[in-house]
Amino acid sequence: MPELPEVETARRRAERALRGRRIAAVLAAPDPIVYHGVTPSRFAAALRGRRVLAVRRKGKHLWMELDRRPWPLFHFGMTGSFEIYRDGVPRPRFWKVEIAMEDGTRLAMPDPRRFGRIRLQERPEEERPLASLGFDPLEGLPPARELARRLRARGGAVKSVLLDQSLFAGVGNWIADEALYQAAIDPRRPASSLALGEVARLRARLHAIVRRAVEVGADDSRFPRAWLFHDRWGREEGARTGRGERIVHLTIGGRTTAFVPSRQR
């Protein structure tokens, strides 16, 4: 499933390819599930002839700022992505939209499992779902004291709270596990129990993890070898980190969680 680093990487690539260019044509697949609140034909008509001014992101959502509203908003779901290519290259399988620019650049969004969403909105940041999102870990985490105040009001396990998109926009399962591992915090602890120093440590690690993942273009082969990421998958008995620490798998809030009891308290 694409998480914040994958989505930010897609945003950067799309902005490099499309910014300043005019949309010549739009093909929209007749998919009433992926297109949410707008028909494919209406979506295509609204984009034709518009110039792309920027491609922006919050959490796992992307949108294009055009020279006239409304603007397109995308969510990749479980299997969505952006593919960028030139005229003459076949569209990818399972495509839901293809946007063709005047210079021959094309961008498509394939989505085999159809959990992604394509919307058309006048002011995306003021409408749902963006309006209901919390802080973006890459762009705007609050100071530690403010974050601690918000966590004190939460009654659930800190792992579940990290996955709450109304507080942490874009944090997914592996990022939450990695941040708690690096911050040495047990994922089962109530979020309200964290001391200010622990919140500051968690905040710093969360931002650093997302920043590093984005810096390497979400290429997980380039993640630091000491990260839990490389050893957290599956639920093998006797799984160990690169440091030799025993990994325990359990379920918190319905999500598989990997943690290291000898490190996380």
Radius of gyration: 20 Å
Subunit organisation of the chains: single chain
User: How large is the count of helical segments?
Assistant: 6
The CA-CA distance between the termini, in Å, is 29 Å
Q: What's the pLDDT, averaged over the residues? A: 97
Spatial shape: elongated
Beta-strand residue percentage: 15-25%
Widest β-sheet, arrangement of strands: 1-6-7-5
Q: Which class of the largest domain in CATH terms?
A: Alpha Beta
* CATH architecture annotation name of the largest domain: Alpha-Beta Barrel
Short description:
The protein has 265 residues and is of the alpha+beta class.
Present the secondary structure layout.
Blueprint: H1 4-18, E1 23-28, H2 40-47, E2 52-58, E3 61-66, E4 71-75, E5 83-86, E6 95-101, E7 105-110, E8 117-121, H3 144-152, H4 158-162, H5 173-183, H6 196-215, E9 248-252, E10 255-259
Antiparallel strand pairs: 1-6, 2-3, 3-4, 4-8, 5-7, 6-7, 9-10
Helix pairs in contact: 1-6, 3-6, 5-6
Care to describe what's here?
The chain is an alpha+beta fold. It contains six helices and ten strands. A hairpin with a 2-residue loop joins strand 9 (248-252) and strand 10 (255-259). The chain is elongated, with a radius of gyration of 20 Å. The protein starts with a helix and ends in a 6-residue tail after the last strand. The mean pLDDT is 97.
